[in-house]
Amino acid sequence: MTNKKTAILNESNYWWLQRLFSIILIPLFIWFSITLISFVTSSPLEGITLAKAFQYIGLSSEKFIFIFFSAITFLHVSLGIEEIIDDYIHSEKAKLVASILVKILIIRLMNEVYIFYIG
Amino acid sequence: MKQNRPLSPHLTVYKPQLTAMLSIYHRITGSVLSLAIILLLFFSKVTSLQLENYFLYNIGYLINSSGHWIVLSCLFAILFSLYYHFFNGIRHLIWDRAQLLEIQKVYQTGYIVLTLTVLSTITTWYILFF
Questions:
Q1: Shortest alpha-carbon distance between residue B90 and chain A (Å)
Q2: Considering the entire predicted model, what is its pTM?
């Protein structure tokens, strides 16, 4: 979005993509919070960690919705951080470096979630 | 960088209004939540049962089971940011359809967002811990 020579998206498509991800995330977030809270309340409270809750979701039949939810979440995060970088960093080179690094980090995090909880 | 030139005061004299505070808080919660995703992923990997290093597992287990007020207050802050970002995001999407843009409606929806986040975090906290 930042530099016209190296940007993948122009500003209009970026705006629509961010709105699309936000709209898709509304029911997905409601589903995610309901499953997490129901998992925590339906099992004995000793020894519940966040890892166990995610592993439970990853092993149940709802894992495809969980994959979809985490993918859309990470893409939403990537576009949001891109906008913050575009606002607060004032040199074109630093913007380019920062946006590339953020995208690599997001891909690495998606890989981590998939390997650790699902694969 | 340019030399330090004198500026008239901007942030120190402008009256803090609900519109500006909620808008900047939306961006702040967005960035805090993205950091929280990284931290929670790393932390849940450290506290998992498949870790071969007993030292790291022990650290994670002690932090998780201690119930220390720093850990619980961080969790409460992350929960509050999550619900606030969700409800204010819905408010932004309503604005993108060019609805509820008058100043009275902006203030009313702002107060609705704040009460919804407080209610949601309190009920979630109550369900999780009591």
A1: 8
A2: 0.89
